[in-house]
Structure formats: C-alpha cells, structure tokens
C-alpha cells in the first residue's frame, strides 16, 4: 500500500469510529421525564339534571417541572381530560404550545367543559350525585402531550407523555378544593 492509501485508510477508520462513538453517546443519552401535579381544582357552573345531563366547567391548575439538566421541552400539543370511574366527562384541547427550559416550572390552567353530557351509567350517575351532595367530586385527570426534547435544533427527540393524576378532589363550594395531586408520568 502506498503512503496515501494508508493515510486515507486511517482517516476513514477514524471517522467511522468517531461516528459510532457519537451514535452510542446519542443512544445512551437518557432524558428525564418532567414531573406533573394538579395544584388546584375547582368547578364552575355545575348542574346535573334529574335526567342525568351534566353541565360543568372544571378549572385545573396544572404544574409541570422539567427535571432534565440539559434538554428544554417543547409541548406542541396538550389535551387535558377529566374522568370519573373510567368515563370521560370533559376535555380541553385549547392548551399550548409551551416551551419549558431545563430546570423550569410551567403552570397553566386547563378548563375542560362538560356541556349537556349524558351520563348513561346509573351507578356513575348515583356516585356523582352523592359526591355532589358532599360537595366534593373525586376525579381522575389525564394529560396527553406531544413533546420535543431539544438541546439544540439539530439534537432533539419526540415523545408522547401520558400523565395520570388521581385522585383529584374538586370542591363544589369554594374552600373545599383539593390539595395538590402528584401525577404518574409515562413516556413513549
Ligand atoms: C339546570 O339545568 C336545568 C335544565 O337545563 C335548568 O332547568 C335549571 O334551572 C338548571 N339549574 C341551575 C342551577 O342552573
Ligand atoms: C348546559 O348548558 C347549555 C348551554 O351552554 C344549555 O343549553 C343546557 O340546557 C345546559 N344543561 C344543563 C343540564 O344545565
């Protein structure tokens, strides 16, 4: 082999190894999921009729903390839904987009609204009535978010976050609101 061929061979090997090292570092780079909590939960305009039609606006203060020390998180799409006993009562799709720098908190208010929602399940209707009588509804809040982790524009990864917060107690009269509920966060 000539001297030039040796040098070219060396350079190619060097580039290949460098490329593999960068790829491994990239794959091994574990970003942390943000933490979520529901800090406050209230209800407005509650009306549940005798024929089981529900009107209510849930007012949920959602807090998110980016625990990652490197990545900023872009929330492109966020849906907040309110469940009771596995049934969806209301959802809010008007949220975001948000950008959250590493280490930062964001707080936003979701207002899922139930408008004339017919509750077909008699057991659920009974539960809602009993809880309303006690002025405290026990709900489950789900948050779905399409997010993008970014260090730089060229280094980013996209995920879906599935966030479940339970139990979230919503007071019907002011002063009976919830304490903060910490959520479970899954990323995929
Ligand atoms: C609840 O809804 C029913 C039917 O729409 C209405 O007649 C009633 O006045 C409402 N009650 C309240 C407290 O808004
Ligand atoms: C819910 O609100 C709508 C208007 O937004 C009204 O037409 C309907 O009668 C209300 N239903 C109840 C159960 O209050």
UniProtKB/TrEMBL annotation:
Highest taxon above the source species: Eukaryota
Subcellular location: Membrane
GO biological process: defense response to other organism
GO cellular component term of the entry, any: plasma membrane
Residues that span the membrane, as ranges: 7-28
Principal subcellular localization: membrane
InterPro entries attached to this UniProt entry: NDR1-like
Keyword tags: Membrane, Transmembrane, Transmembrane helix
Entry-linked PANTHER family: HARPIN-INDUCED PROTEIN 1 CONTAINING PROTEIN, EXPRESSED (PTHR31234:SF39), LATE EMBRYOGENESIS ABUNDANT (LEA) HYDROXYPROLINE-RICH GLYCOPROTEIN FAMILY (PTHR31234)
Name listed for the protein in its UniProt record: Uncharacterized protein
Species per Swiss-Prot/TrEMBL record: Beta vulgaris subsp. vulgaris
Organism phylogeny: Eukaryota, Viridiplantae, Streptophyta, Embryophyta, Tracheophyta
């Amino acid at each position: 082999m000539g001297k030039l061929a040796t040098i070219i061979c060396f350079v190619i090997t060097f580039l290949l190894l460098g490329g593999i090292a960068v790829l491994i570092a990239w794959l091994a780079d574990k970003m942390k999921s943000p933490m979520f909590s529901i800090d406050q939960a209230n209800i407005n305009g509650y009306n549940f009729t005798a024929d089981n039609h529900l009107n209510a606006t849930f007012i949920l203060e959602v807090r998110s903390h980016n625990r990652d020390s490197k990545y900023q998180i872009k929330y492109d799409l966020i849906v907040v839904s309110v469940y009771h006993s596995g049934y969806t009562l209301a959802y809010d799709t008007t949220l975001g987009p948000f950008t959250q720098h590493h280490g930062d908190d964001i707080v936003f208010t979701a207002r899922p609204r139930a408008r004339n929602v017919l509750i077909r399940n008699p057991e659920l209707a009974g539960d809602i009535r009993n809880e309303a009588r006690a002025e405290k509804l026990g709900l489950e809040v789900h948050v779905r978010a399409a997010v993008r982790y970014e260090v730089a524009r060229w280094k980013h990864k996209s995920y879906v976050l599935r966030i479940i917060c339970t139990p979230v107690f919503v007071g019907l009269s002011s002063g009976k609101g919830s304490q903060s509920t910490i959520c479970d966060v899954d990323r995929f």
